[in-house]
Q: What sequence folds into this?
């Protein structure tokens, strides 16, 4: 009886061990979900970091104008706001598939495809650049410019008038003229 009880307990434990070791979603065939790293994407884009398969860096042909990214080539479109223009999926279709649809890119990356992780990193960087540039154009700097413009002019006028408070009034010769006029006997 005692032994039976013990083996029953073992069975129950074994049952739960088996149950919990079965994955809820069997996704062993699906790709793992990769998350892009915008920093790494930026380094890949600018060429600070080489692509695994030695493809040319994107800014060889493309420009992204955000702070801290050196300006790139002008052969192809500026990609600063390509996510807004094309959506993330649309943009990715240009560099995320092999072969790439654009002839120049197809040629350049034909036997040097980007890895899946690199594609995600580039996507993260392009999204980051897009957001940055949008925030920049959305923030209105006109008010500050006007303020410092008018303020600056007023300040300079004040400085120069105080510096020149003892400036000569009238012409340089007026004193000589007056002296001479006094000596002239009418
Ligand atoms: C050899 C030059 C070259 C390189 C390198 C290159 N591209 Fe391109 N890319 C082009 C050309 C040319 C086009 C199509 C014409 C255009 O957009 O000016 C294009 C188009 C694109 C577009 C579509 C732009 C739009 O708004 O239509 C995206 C997105 C893009 N490239 C991303 C990339 C990324 C990301 C890389 C780096 C992995 C890269 N490209 C590397 C030449 C290049």
A:
């Amino acid at each position: 009886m005692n032994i039976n009880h013990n083996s029953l307990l073992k069975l129950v434990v074994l049952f739960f061990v088996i149950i919990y070791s079965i994955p809820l979603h069997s996704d062993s065939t699906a790709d793992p979900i990769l998350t892009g790293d915008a920093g790494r994407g930026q380094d890949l884009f600018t060429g600070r970091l080489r692509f695994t398969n030695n493809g040319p860096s994107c800014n060889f042909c493309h420009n992204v104008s955000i702070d801290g990214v050196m300006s790139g080539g002008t052969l192809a479109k500026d990609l600063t706001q390509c996510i807004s223009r094309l959506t993330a999926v649309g943009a990715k279709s240009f560099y995320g598939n092999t072969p790439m649809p654009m002839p120049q890119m197809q040629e350049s990356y034909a036997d040097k495809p980007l890895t899946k992780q690199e594609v995600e990193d580039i996507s993260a960087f392009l999204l980051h650049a897009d957001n940055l540039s949008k925030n920049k154009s959305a923030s209105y700097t006109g008010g500050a410019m006007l303020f410092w413009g008018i303020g600056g002019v007023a300040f300079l006028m004040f400085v120069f008038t105080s510096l020149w408070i003892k400036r000569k009034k009238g012409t340089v010769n007026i004193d000589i003229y007056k002296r001479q006029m006094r000596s002239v006997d009418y």
Q: What stands out?
A: The radius of gyration is 36 Å.
